[in-house]
Amino acid sequence: MQKSFGGNYDRKLFAKLRKLRKAIADEENIPPYVVFNDATLIEMAEQSPLTAGEMLSVNGVGTRKLERFGKPFMALIRAHVDGDDE
User: Fold this and answer.
1) When you count CB atoms within 10 A of the terminal residue's CB, does the N or C end of the chain come out lower?
2) Which parts of the sequence belong to the HRDC domain (predicted)?
């Protein structure tokens, strides 16, 4: 069963996550969807995962992607939640 996204996510956070994904993809010379796809970023913007365990509960985040890309995404989400990124 596919999860539908009815707009219950933080669009501002989603935009920041996409920007971070693009920066990482450019640095690694890989397509952005290889980092995380949009559905995964939307789910991150819905759930605001702050720990490795919470990140692993997001569809599209596995152990390898968490190890490779997780820290900057969790840091960005933490800053957004705390209001430190403005």
Assistant:
1) N
2) 7-86
pLDDT, tens digit (0-9, with 9 covering 90-100), for 14-59: 999 999 999 999 999 999 999 999 999 999 999 999 999 999 999 9
Cβ atoms within 10 Å, residue 28? 13
- Cβ partners under 8 Å of residue 79, min gap 6: 85
Angle at 48 between CA 41 and CA 52, to 5 degrees: 90
* Domain spanning 19-82, CATH class: mainly alpha
Tokens 């992607």 map to which residue? 65
Pull the structure tokens for residue 14: 């989603």
pTM of the model: 0.88
DSSP, res 82: H
CA 69, 70, 72 angle in degrees (round to 5)?
A: 85
Residue with tokens 């997001």: 58
Type of residue numbered 29: N
